[in-house]
Design a protein that fits this description.
Blueprint (H helix, E strand, L loop, with lengths): L3 E6 L2 E6 L4 H7 L23 E4 L5 E3 L10 E3 L3 H15 L16 H8 L23 E3 L9 H9 L5 E4 L6 E4 L15 H5 L5 E3 L3 H9 L4 E6 L20 H10 L4 E4 H22 L6 E2 L4 H10 L13 H16 L7 E7 L4 H4 L16 E4 H10 L21 H4 L6 H15 L17 E8 L2 E9 L1 H16 L8 E5 L17 H17 L9 H11 L5 H7 L12
Parallel strand pairs: 1-5, 10-11, 10-13, 12-17, 13-14, 16-17
Antiparallel strand pairs: 1-2, 3-4, 3-5, 6-9, 7-8, 15-16
Length: 584
């Protein structure tokens, strides 16, 4: 049990665990200390100076984010002097920041804008000096606009500390310091894996998702196009936050309704394709486990940021990666072949859009020739949860008042196993539910695998499958993933059996529920609420195992034949290529 510390915040007693910083200690006393650079996901580095407080007995103002609470400490968080200091710091930041709020992607969600409003800043007392630095639009996923950077350091801390990618760095010094890809190259030439966690943690409009909504508006007006859309598992537990709903509120039916009002002809659900992924990936695992058709461990590949990272840093493990495409790509291939045939359309007459919690899905849709398995580009455009929220608002739709609707059945029915794909450990759990059936011909008595749930960076478990012990690992955030893969590589190098049979990987903390395209403000508390909602949705489903999905059974009977068939490989599988870390 953690040692507890007693201190005073503005004269009120507060008790917090040892190691808590003063900023967070104040929050437990319902006192909000203003801040800009601090984020609970990241180590404090006291860059902005807005969170200064006073300590009894000290002549200095100290930065509360980097000050650890101590026994008997007495802290003043707000008085006239602190107000004036904070206001001055904000004014100085604004003096180097563009006044383009009306056209900024973060208008209304900008933390600097909120601080300026809270402090009643109506004019700028300092000469404005804004550097003219061109945006970096080189990737299909995210845009860098460094002239809006406030030097908070969050993006660099995320990229280097959490993801261990090192695509972003601070270059130059003093008032010339700027955020840029390492080596001052274009982002697309850097080690960037397009995960978007930099954009999710940026407090202003210096990093944001590439906006692809105009392509959708054009498609729904094109009478020659049959417009189809799919929504990812994690979107349904996050989109409501953009409309004032509590985190974790499931809004699946309202999303279907909103998409139809936006003009889409057909609404499908990526959860269906998550079930399809399990049929393919689960069968692949069972064949490797029971027939030795490929090396173990098998490593999941639903996350395009992870695939990009793997091809750059762990290409020697490519034989261990599942060849199954991600759910969004599987559904797109089926929409432009199986479904297109049902409605008498050619693949090129189908416009396929996806709504994803992830910025790297924008990259995935064009990453290689396997994403054109229908003969044309399988997904025409991928937008994030944030982009969909903007479209709904632009259309004047009162989202929270919408009556629930259902997805179109051909590729829309899903099981609870499909839903939990959005949470770390969910892909593994869904796969184990079906793998057990594929091996034994019987269903599990209990389909819950509690040992691989939760926000621990690495989760390990052993599962009995028909008398065979299957060792599994689940990792999220790249730095944690490296630990697991290095264990595998060390075993292989020593000629030993790897410690795992099956590994699930997701780039973002918590999995897709905290993807780089989700509503801003991600914290572990919010992630837990989204994850809890996903497992609640799983329990509410009629079917909880992918192999029970009647639409999946029908798809195999009418079109694919069986899992891992020649036709399945044609449309549902891909391959991987070693890629350089830096593009030259």
């Amino acid at each position: 049990m953690a040692t507890m510390i007693n201190l005073e915040i503005n004269g009120a007693p507060v008790t917090v665990p040892e190691g808590t910083n003063v900023l967070d200690a104040a929050a437990t006393a319902k006192v909000n200390i203003p801040k800009l650079c601090y984020h609970p996901d990241l180590p404090a580095w006291a860059a902005c100076g807005i969170c200064v407080v006073k300590l009894e007995g000290s002549p200095k103002l100290v930065r509360s984010c980097a000050l650890e609470a101590a026994e008997g400490m007495k802290v003043i968080t707000h008085d006239s002097e602190l107000h004036e200091v904070r206001r001055t710091v904000i004014e100085l930041i604004l003096s180097t920041h563009p006044n383009s709020c009306l056209t900024c992607s973060r208008n209304g969600t900008c933390e600097l804008q909120a601080l300026a409003a809270d402090f009643g800043i109506r004019e700028q007392p300092y000469e404005q000096i804004v550097r003219d630095i061109a945006p970096d639009t080189s990737t299909p996923s995210i845009v860098l606009n460094p002239e809006k950077c406030v030097s908070c350091g969050r993006c660099v801390k995320v990229c280097q500390g959490l993801q261990d990618v090192w695509a972003l760095e601070f270059l130059d010094r003093g008032d010339q310091m700027r955020m840029a890809p390492a080596g001052d190259i274009e982002l697309n030439e850097s080690p960037c894996i397009k995960c978007g966690q930099c954009s999710a943690h940026c407090p202003v409009g210096a990093i944001f998702e590439k906006d692809d909504t105009e392509a959708i508006y054009a498609a729904v007006l094109d009478e020659k196009k049959h417009t189809v859309v799919q929504i990812a598992p994690a979107v349904r537990v996050a989109l409501g936050e953009a409309f004032g709903m509590d985190p974790g509120t499931i809004v699946t039916g309202k999303i279907y309704a909103a998409l139809r009002r936006l003009g889409f002809d057909t609404v499908f659900d990526t959860n269906f394709a998550a079930d399809l992924t399990i049929m393919e990936e689960g069968s692949e695992f069972v064949q490797r486990l029971t027939k030795g058709t490929g090396p173990l461990p098998l490593i999941t590949t639903c996350c395009p940021s992870w695939v990009d990272y793997m091809e750059k840093y762990y290409s020697d493990l490519i034989p261990h990666f599942s060849t199954a495409k991600s759910p969004q790509m599987m559904l797109a291939a089926m929409a432009k072949t199986y479904y297109a045939k049902q409605i008498g359309r050619k693949p090129e007459e189908i416009f396929m859009a996806s709504v994803m919690p992830c910025t790297s899905k924008k990259y995935e849709i064009v990453r290689d020739e396997n994403m054109y398995s229908s003969g044309v580009q399988d997904i025409d455009v991928s937008i994030t949860t944030r982009e969909l929220a903007r479209m709904i608002k632009q259309a004047g739709i009162t989202f929270e008042s919408l009556e629930d609707e259902k997805a179109d059945e051909a590729l829309g029915i899903y099981t609870g196993a499909g839903t939990i794909f959005g949470a770390t450990g969910g892909v593994m759990e869904a796969a184990l539910r079906t793998a057990h059936y594929l091996v034994t011909g019987t269903d599990l008595t209990s389909v819950e695998f509690e040992g691989i749930r939760g926000l621990d960076g690495i989760k390990r478990a052993s599962v009995d499958v028909a008398g065979t012990t299957v060792n599994v690992a689940v990792a999220h955030n790249m730095k944690n993933i490296e630990v697991v893969l290095d264990e595998v590589k060390e075993a292989l190098a020593a000629g030993k059996e790897p410690p795992y049979h099956f590994i699930e990987v997701m780039a973002c903390r918590g999995g897709c529920i905290a993807g780089g395209g989700q509503p801003y403000g991600g914290t572990d508390e919010l992630r837990r609420k989204r994850i809890e909602a996903m497992y609640g949705d799983d329990k509410a489903q009629t079917y909880r195992c992918s192999h029970h999905n009647p639409s999946i059974q029908k798809l195999y009977k009418e079109f694919l034949g069986e899992p891992l068939s020649e036709k399945s490989h044609q449309y549902l599988h891909t391959h991987y290529t070693p890629r350089p870390i830096y593009v030259r």
